[in-house]
Input
Amino acid sequence: MTAIGLRPATPADSEFCFHLHKAAMGAYVTAIWGWDEQMQRDFHANVFTPDRWQIITADGADAGMLHVEHRPAEIYLARIELHPDHQGRGIGGRLIRSLLHQARQQGWELTLDVLVVNERAQALYRRLGLHEVTSLRRGQHQDQDVHQPCRVMSAVDAYPRSIRFSARRMWQRPGALARLRP
Output
């Protein structure tokens, strides 16, 4: 079994995290917005916050990054990215199960957003017991609390950019906890 660890990110991890994002998310970003190298570097410079990010290690080697926010009544998985060489090995699932356990212990929700074109991640989240609670459309900010039923639309201009997933409602159903345990 792969030994998974987390270490605090440092400013020296910035370039690693940028290349990780390009490797792990580049195809999805391209599918929605197109990949503009300078725009992506500028975006990374604005969002890279080493004091809030962690580097995921697999058998001692840097393999990905994790950004978790503890908000009132929820744990928000802001970002999890694994290098393609480390995907499909259970690393992401183990980390998310740990967050699910933590949220369940505190009586909180675990929420996250995922790009609508990232079907592989959506399948993982569903396998872990999370469910879709809403779609965020162009112009809608991800921090808005919109708990309306999801509809994936096919019209290009109205096509949702990301989908919000949550686990809390699963915990409120009898027998659901057994499915969420690691």
